[in-house]
């Protein structure tokens, strides 16, 4: 019998209470970010929430391989901090695109690792969100990289379109979903999972290439909302409530923000995604 | 599984509505910082990498998960830092001294 008042920092309930403390911080942070006077404080509050969520997760008994975790975090910090410090104010949108892209990439890689851990044989309530996370994460990673490349003028900012682009995109989406359905229906094939990642990657490229530089901030915001959605989906696959809540907060608030940004430019989202417009460089 | 699917979906739907409501009339100047802050928040996916890597067996799985953890860290750290830099501008109105400093800097840049 466990003694009363037994307490351990590794207690799953303690970790969940920490998550519970982080959620209001994310929400208050976002709320504060709506107003110029409180915005900076809002960002700091959200960052505090994130620190609590990460620290609590590190206590989880399921977490292992601390050496590799330290390596990953050190690498990420060594790349992220100087990049964020060095970027010029005018280059902020593409930097956000890049940071958004790596988030989507992380989702896709985690989904892949999770698929491999089960040898492609997961219960459906875990398999479906894993496949969804892989598709959206891969689209977001590659779409964001193209957005970065265009704004950074590594690739031409003008709309680049193929003949029959819409049908190509539709074909790629149908292909990725068909592979996902085949896997969910009982094929444990990892080749099909890799095909999903590749088809989604192509789709991410194809969706963003036809969009002109001026429309790019709206598209980055849309990809940002998608990454949030993919993180929430990964949360369902991994039974992690922090991923579900924070991911869907971004998915939902990000889609409202995307709409506001399109309105501010007198453009509709459908119009922008159809592409071929906004050929002027960013800010034009 | 510690939670059943319906509980998770309930949390998902309720949190989505909070996300819809949390954005109000945002002035246009705050669109990019707000996007950037929400971007940093989805870096929460880092937790997924932390939870999965201990159970990965092969070298390949460990490599992709270290990359995922590095990516998640870049997303969080870079995201919050870059948002803070954007919002520094809202902190106070520029004073005369700031204007002088800026002018000097710009002149130096032109010369360079």
Coarse structural class of chain B: mainly alpha
Largest interface: A-B, 99 and 82 residues
**Spans where pLDDT lies below 50 across 5 or more residues of chain B:** none
**Distance between the ends of chain B:** 61 Å
Q: Distance between the terminal alpha carbons of chain A, to the nearest Å?
A: 70 Å
* Amount of beta strand of chain A: under 5%
Number of domains of chain A: 2
Mean of pLDDT of chain B: 89
Shape of chain B: flat
Task: Describe the fold and architecture.
The complex is a heterodimer of chains A (284) and B (112). By secondary structure, chain A is mostly helical. Chain A has 2 domains: 1-63; 90-274, no CATH class. In chain A, 73% of the residues lie in helices and 0% in strands. Chain A has 10 helices and no strands. The longest helix of chain A is centred in the middle third of the chain and has 28 residues, at 124-151. Chain B has helices at residues 5-21, 31-41, 46-53, 59-88, 96-111. By secondary structure, chain B is mainly α. Chain B has 5 helices and no strands. In chain B, 73% of the residues lie in helices and 0% in strands. Chain B has one domain (28-111). The mean pLDDT of chain B is 89. In chain B, helix 2 packs antiparallel against helix 4. The chains are: A mainly alpha (284), B mainly alpha (112). At the A-B interface, helix 1, helix 2, helix 3, helix 4 and helix 8 of A face helix 1, helix 2, helix 3 and helix 4 of B.
């Amino acid at each position: 019998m466990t003694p009363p008042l037994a307490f351990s920092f590794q207690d799953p309930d303690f970790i969940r209470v920490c998550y519970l403390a982080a959620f209001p911080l994310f929400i208050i942070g976002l709320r504060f970010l709506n107003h110029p006077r409180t915005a900076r404080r809002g960002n700091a509050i959200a960052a505090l929430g994130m620190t609590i969520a990460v620290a609590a997760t590190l206590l989880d008994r399921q977490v292992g391989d601390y050496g590799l975790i330290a390596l990953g975090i050190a690498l990420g910090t060594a790349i992220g901090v100087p990049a964020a410090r060095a970027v010029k104010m005018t280059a902020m949108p593409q930097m956000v695109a890049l940071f958004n892209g790596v988030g989507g990439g992380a989702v896709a890689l985690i989904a892949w690792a999770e698929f491999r851990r089960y040898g492609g044989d997961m219960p459906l309530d875990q398999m479906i969100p894993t496949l969804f996370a892989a598709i959206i994460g891969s689209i977001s990673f590659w779409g964001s990289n193209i957005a970065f490349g265009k704004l950074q003028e590594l690739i031409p900012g003008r709309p680049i379109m193929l003949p029959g682009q819409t049908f190509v995109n539709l074909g790629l989406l149908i292909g990725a979903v068909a592979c996902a359905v085949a896997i969910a229906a009982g094929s444990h094939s990892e080749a099909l999972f890799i095909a999903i990642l590749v088809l989604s990657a192509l789709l991410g490229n194809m969706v963003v290439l036809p969009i002109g530089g001026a429309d790019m901030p709206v598209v980055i915001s849309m990809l940002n909302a998608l990454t949030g959605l993919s993180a929430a989906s990964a949360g369902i696959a991994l039974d992690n409530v922090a991923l579900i809540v924070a991911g869907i907060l971004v998915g939902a608030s990000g889609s409202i923000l995307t709409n506001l940004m399109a309105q501010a430019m007198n453009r509709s989202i459908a119009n922008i995604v159809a592409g071929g417009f906004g050929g002027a460089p960013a800010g034009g | 599984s510690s939670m059943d699917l319906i509980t998770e979906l309930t949390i998902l739907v309720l949190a989505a509505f909070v996300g819809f409501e949390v954005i109000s009339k945002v002035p246009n100047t705050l669109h990019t910082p707000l996007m950037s802050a929400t971007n940093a928040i989805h870096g929460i996916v880092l937790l997924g990498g932390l939870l999965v890597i201990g159970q990965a067996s092969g070298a390949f799985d460990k490599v992709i998960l270290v990359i995922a953890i590095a990516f998640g860290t870049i997303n969080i750290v870079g995201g919050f830092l870059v948002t803070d830099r954007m919002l520094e501008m809202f902190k106070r109105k520029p004073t005369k001294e700031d204007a002088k400093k800026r002018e000097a800097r710009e002149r130096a840049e032109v010369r360079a």
